Amino acid sequence: MFLAGLFLLALSGAPLVVRAQEDLFPVSIIHMNDFHARFEGTDWSSSPCSNEDECIGGYARVITVVKQLFEDLKESNPIYLNAGDNFQGTIWYNIGRWNVTQYFLNLVPADAITLGNHEFDHGVEGVVPFLETIKSPMIVANIDDSEEPTMQGKYNKSVIIDKYGRKIGVIGVILQTTYQIANTGKLKFLDESETVRAEAERLKNEHGVDIIIVLSHCGLEVDRIIAKNAGPLIDVIVGGHSHTFLYTGENPPGPDTPRDDYPVEVIQDDGHKVLIVQASCYTKYLGNITVYFDKAGEVVRYEGEPIFLAHGIPEDPDIVNELAPWKVDIDAIGKREVGKTRVTLSKSDCNYEECNLGSFINDAYTYSYIKSTPYDHPYWTTAAISVCNVGGIRTTLNKGALTYAHLVTTIPFGNTVDSFDIRGKYLLEALEYSVEKSYDEGQFSAANMLQVSGLRVTFNITKPVGERVVEVLVRCQKCEIPEYEPLELNKSYRVVTGSFLSGGGDGFTMFRDYKENTIIGEVDIDVFEETKYNLHSYISNFIQSIKKMEIKDIFFLTGIVFQFELIRASSCLQISLIFVFICTNLLQISGTDMIADAMYRQPKQKALCINILIRTL
């Protein structure tokens, strides 16, 4: 009864059966996108849920609502669409890959599904078994697979759904630049608008289809372009990729802030109206819109809104039972506690400024090379600079205990932490590229923003593209004590980053094309887990060998007096400089305060941190 009331409210109280009214034909579109392996409920930041009373979303709630909507809207021709990116994002995918994904999606098959870029995270060979086993019609119109024979014949450009003799065409489309952000082999990706237009014309001319829905994994801004340019035959775009929450009205439910109305209306030059919908990501919401078409297939009106999958929505018992045996193996690995954080390490700011989560990741990257530098090495480290792409940072790490599943959800892609030499001019080019694109015209939010360690970069984003970097200071690597120096364009620098970025991912082709002397490092998740143990051991080994301490300097921080000094140790070792890392947002790992070659800054709070460098001679 509660659910029925909720769904009727979501339809704004309008009558559900209107086939005869005004000769209109209703189509109720139930849609989800960017599932990203959220088989279980999550907290409000889409991380693994530690408090069962606060869990939202999850696949069992999705199916509860899908089933209920199909019942409530059965007179309005309901269809269920999935806009891609079902792979990747939690430990469920890391362990079960395509197999666990197809298994659960097949329990309640969508009427159509398209591919997202993350379906290619393990290459063409990683998506082919999924295509071979998924029961839903897989549709994507703008892929040329002529040089990838294993993909051939495993999907179609579109599907026709018949409802009471009325034909509804659904065309799939994926971002043309997918090859830049995914491992797509020899596949070619064609212009989105042109291929959608061509397929829409084929559906109309060969099959008489006059209601056409585009199932898109291109992102809201590209969907706007498709809506404007793909011709008068398309009516609705059901989108994904940009994780966009759309909502009309005040007091939107759930954790997300709306980017625009639900639906977005685009009016073509001839007056034809195209609607765009999207339902955020990570099963926080399920899209729900009923569109009324006239006899010519033109949109007359619509109603509905996305449904927040709150904790109060019960989980489908059949799905819960199916999840149980898989969950045993998942929990054995994922619920292992690996540490604690005294503050939230937030993803929310990472697209437009330095964020403490980005700093944590990059500092772990650089530390993985600091710890492997021999004690008798002439320089303090073999690599002093690190960068990572914000697209690789998936969720916030909330204050409190951290499990292995939390880490995998935040950095799920299994990159190796590689290092390479590159000239300063190409490093500058990468920094310029990182602030070139913006998701939102109203507020700067760089799609490819680089988070950094060992770099101090000043941007002026009001300047033209290619001229936005004002100053770059680089932490020296070939030195005994690290200092920051101006970037030299012809100087070679050792840079640490993930293998995706090193290989030119997200359009950073300058790394792929101009890097030299590449060293393949450890897998990123291992780097983060090892950092706390190795760093604590690294410091403790020296402290145990201290014979003498003389007080030279006194620092007053957070009301506590700390006294330190140059320390002479046994075996002719000298710790030539120690700065104790003390900060209001100090990270605590397994009960031990983490001391690192790092600064975790929270710009809004102006948190004070002191950088620490341990140097042995």
TrEMBL record:
- The entry's protein name is Apyrase
Gene3D superfamilies, sorted: 3.60.21.10, 5'-Nucleotidase, C-terminal domain
The reply on keyword Nucleotide-binding is: yes
**Does the UniProt entry include the keyword Glycosyltransferase?**
no
- Domain Calcineurin-like phosphoesterase residue range list: 28-244
The record, for InterPro entries, names:
5'-Nucleotdase_C, 5'-Nucleotdase_C_sf, 5_nucleotidase/apyrase, Calcineurin-like_PHP, Metallo-depent_PP-like
The entry's keywords: Hydrolase, Metal-binding, Nucleotide-binding, Signal
Cite the GO molecular-function annotations of the record: 5'-nucleotidase activity; metal ion binding; nucleotide binding
The segment(s) forming the 5'-Nucleotidase C-terminal domain are 338-512
Signal peptide extent: 1-20
On the tree of life, the source organism's domain of life is Eukaryota
Regarding protein family, the annotation reads: Belongs to the 5'-nucleotidase family.
Q: Which Pfam families match?
A: 5_nucleotid_C, Metallophos
Which GO terms are recorded in the biological process aspect for this UniProt protein?
AMP catabolic process
Give start-end ranges for the coiled-coil region(s): none
Question: Which species is listed as the source?
Answer: Hermetia illucens (Black soldier fly)
Pull one GO CC term from this UniProt entry: plasma membrane
